[in-house]
Amino acid sequence: MRQPAGRKSTARDSDWEGVRLHVVTGKGGTGKTTVAAALALALASGNRKVLLVEVEGRQGIAQVFDLPPLPYEERKIAVAPGGGDVYALAIDPEEAMLDYLEMFYGIKRMGKALTRMGMIDFATTIAPGLRDVLVTGKTSEAVRRRDKSGRRVYDAIVMDAPPTGRIARFLNVTQEVAGLARVGPVKNHADMVRSVLASPETAVHFVTLLEEMPVQETLDGITELRTAKLPVGGVFINMVRPTTLPDTVLDAAAADRFDLSELALGLKAAGLADGKADASLIAEALALEVSEHARRTELERRERGTLDTAGAPRYDLPLLADGVDLTGLYELAEAINEQGAA
């Protein structure tokens, strides 16, 4: 891949070599925006330039990077590990509509008048899918954009997309605008967007937790995308807790075969309890913690087995003990790079 002027080409060993648009989706509460931000940092590492796009108007990117609300313009927000730049764009459908009017009709000034009259909001409300076409179109334009020398402006684009339950409809723009126009700029624009989203240059990644509901939504979302012939990427398992005890202990705890008296003796021998009664109380509390950990581990193993049926690459991202901050984002970006996802 050719690099924009002023940046050196960096060899990469990635599962998604050749993919330029990474669409990130996931059930609410799984950390979708956090993973999208970390993926952008990972992709930018090694002196690359990446655009992180938000399409839902929640200002989630600004929050995760601890920044003021982002305007409708591309601006640099972070430096990636080892060099490289992450830019961000919070897409506003009204502004995207004005860009569209200027691009295809040369009437942006009139479009501003329509905005004041509320006509653009009216149009995106009554025209099914038009709003999605506008925001995905802006992203697709960034994928295809080149500088004056003909080189790609961005090495990769990461889209913080809508939740899993809406992702197939959101991306399947050709079907959504079929009733709007069969010829002309609207159809041409939708076809251009579809040509990007359905191409090998795009991968739709899913973020999940090892819990029943998000795992099932992930499987349903993957099935919907494959039915719509849209490219499925990988599955990022977020907030993975380390298994700190041997399997023999976990199996015993899960089967209620935990020996409390032996545990109490061990606590007393280690000097962690004073007297038999104290040791017994601590042993009971500790056994309860171990049993809960064992049940959680058993659930996570079962959900991992369920995810096997998706036939998609999987990547584990650790639970951040101190919560999500910029340091945590770099930690997640490192985990993504180590596993070959970027």
TrEMBL record:
UniProt GO molecular function: ATP binding; ATP hydrolysis activity
Gene3D superfamilies on file: P-loop containing nucleotide triphosphate hydrolases (3.40.50.300)
Domain ArsA/GET3 Anion-transporting ATPase-like: 21-177
Pfam families the UniProt entry points to: ArsA_ATPase (PF02374)
InterPro entries in the cross-refs: ArsA/GET3_ATPase-like, ATPase_ArsA/GET3, P-loop_NTPase
Record's protein name: ATPase
